[in-house]
Amino acid sequence: MFKLNSKLIAFAALVCSAGLGMAQDNKALIDVLIQKGILNQEEAANIQKDLAKSAAASQSKTVISGRLYIDVSDVTAKTDAGVKVDPSGFGTDVKRFYLGVTHQFDNMWSYNINTDSAFSSSTGATSTFIKTAYVQAKFSPAAIVQVGSANQPWIPFVEDAFTLRYVEKTVTDRLGVGNSADWGVHFLGTSNMVSYNFAMVNGGGYKNPTRTNSVDWEGRVSIEPTKGLIFAVGGYSGYLGKDSNSAPARQKASRVSLLASYSTSKLNLGLEYFTEDNWGNTTGVASDSGDGYSAWAQYKFDKIWSAFGRIEHDKMSKDLHPSMRDNAYILGVQYAAIKGVMLSLVYKNDNIDHPTSASTVTDYSEIGMYSEIRF
Questions:
Q1: CB of 198 within 8 A of CB of 153?
Q2: Are residues 25 and 134 in the same domain?
């Protein structure tokens, strides 16, 4: 009798193991085996523990990813006095290299770490930073909490809409009117057509985790009323990590951002607008403000070839230097070589009207081949 029960127990465990995704069916089968006298309560409890361990192991996984932005281009940079200056010349740039690891413990818990390597013109060397390093608790798709350095609500969201980050940063990132990641507590989620992300952060960006007297706040709410059509509004308020005991901030920085984008299998259109007060001027005495917009369009001829363009107009010192303005243009053709490899022939031009100094680079043009490699 003992041998027979042992075989049936093994068979029952095998059947239950085959149905890891059907917890209710497993419980019902175990209850039947208990009623038939094939399993006792202790044996049933042991089987359920083994099933729970197997289910947890099947949910656990680790993903390693990487992105490389590299270009070969010719640059011409001139000051307002017409003098050609650095970085004029022909050469190769590795603008960014990201290496990330995400580990999923179970359906709720995970962690992420992502490094950011880039060349610094100020030091003349390549520096590596921790861009994201956070623990995540996903209570539901509508309630996700991340603690550590994580993506900020606005810039990465716009990058996803623009899709061409390897060619150029989005306007708020390019002008330094925001951080793409920061240290703090992030709450985000999606519910039906609405998505949101709110962050309480240190304010200095992911390269500067230093705490100060107060925290900064950034948030975004977006709605997608129909597939591909997105409207979003975002806001920021804080001292940008400059409010310390030894050097208190004088005034608070703020930013309001708007986005409208529309994407189909053939077309990608977008418009981003921002207005800011005292950005980068929290330790100054005189107040200042700025605003700007970026509009882009991309048309996909097929799955391989597409053409794109972007235009920007910005006034970054409307109060202190009201006549100064920045105008930037991008034109390009993209080729999807293979999965994970994008190549683009790109022309860029950036010019500044009425700069504050004759040594300011007011005419910057670049033409070259840009690429993104992902795995």
A1: yes
A2: no
Long-range contacts of 45-49 (CB under 8 A, 24+ apart): 47/9, 47/12, 47/13, 47/16
Give the count of domains, the chain.
2
| CA pair distance 1, 4, nearest whole angstrom | 5
The closest of 297, 314, 315 to 306, measured between CA atoms, is 297
- Predicted confidence at residue 249, as pLDDT, reads 86
The amino acid that residue 281 corresponds to is N
Give the distance between the most distant pair of CA atoms in the chain.
100
Q: Would residue 350 be called left, alpha or beta, if left means φ above 0 and alpha means ψ between -120 and 50 degrees?
A: beta
Closest-CA residue to 270 (of 292, 294, 291) = 294
Q: What is the pTM of this model?
A: 0.84
Quick one: 44 and 69 in the same domain?
A: no
Element (H, E) at 342: strand 341-353
- The first and second tokens of residue 207, run together, are 């390269």
Residue 18, pLDDT score: 46
Q: Is the pLDDT of residue 33 over 90?
A: no
d(CA 66, CA 88): 30
Do the bridges between strand 216-226 and strand 61-79 make them parallel or antiparallel, or are there none, so unpaired? unpaired
197 and 300 fall within a common domain: yes
State pLDDT tens for residues 121-158.
656 678 899 999 999 999 999 999 999 999 999 999 99
* CATH classification of the domain holding 327: 2.40.160.10
Q: Is 11 in the same domain as 117? A: no
Residue 347, domain extent: 60-374
pLDDT band of 74, cuts 50, 70, 90: very high
The average pLDDT across 240-248 equals 88
